[in-house]
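Last lecture ended with a question: if I hand you only a sequence, what can you say about the shape of the protein? Today we answer it with a concrete record. The protein is OmpA family protein. Below, first the input exactly as provided, then the predicted structure, then a couple of comments.
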Amino acid sequence: MTPQTTARPARRGPVLAALASTALLVTLTAPAPPAHADSGPGAPADTTPPVKIDAKDSDLKMPEGAKLAPGRVLDIKSVVETDDGDERREDTNAKVKFALQAEVLFGKDSSKLGGDARARIKEIASEAERQNAESVRVFGFTDDLGSAGHGIVLSKQRANAVQQALAEDLDPSVKYEIRGYGEQYPIADNATEEGRKRNRRVEVSFPRTG
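The predicted structure:
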């Protein structure tokens, strides 16, 4: 007798897993979106020109008729934040920026620096000295509670207070740009107290030299 062959059901599990792995690989290796400069109070990245490439170099092995796209320098950003979110540091190719929450520096609805504030500002001044900063930006921000006009005034007063503390430790030749933006340029959702707390802040930034 000829033995009968029994059809086995298709093994879909491994096949689906393999397809999922392939899709994940494609996602992970997809090109990153184009880099862009800061908007709002941030400054465009001050980077050096990209390295020139000879489009006629045979090692490029480009298809006939193809052309190289214009070169770009990506501005890489490193962000470090304390566990409680009270202080945040951002490092890019072009600058260093610190963001301190208002509660760390001031009392409620006040522009008078608190006891712990000067020690934190002194650390920022030390970093500015290490970077040989010749100019420093000090920007104040608030949440969206209260009137917009009050937020503008309070944020400017707080930025002024931080600048004056920085000036005590930095060289007199350092130039400052001081602004109060009020509730403009939030970094978190003002619909929650946690978000409003993050938005109440003073940012100090200066060019990176090393």
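Comments.
1. Helices lie at 12-28, 102-105, 117-130, 148-167, 193-199.
2. Residues 1-39 have pLDDT under 50 and may be disordered.
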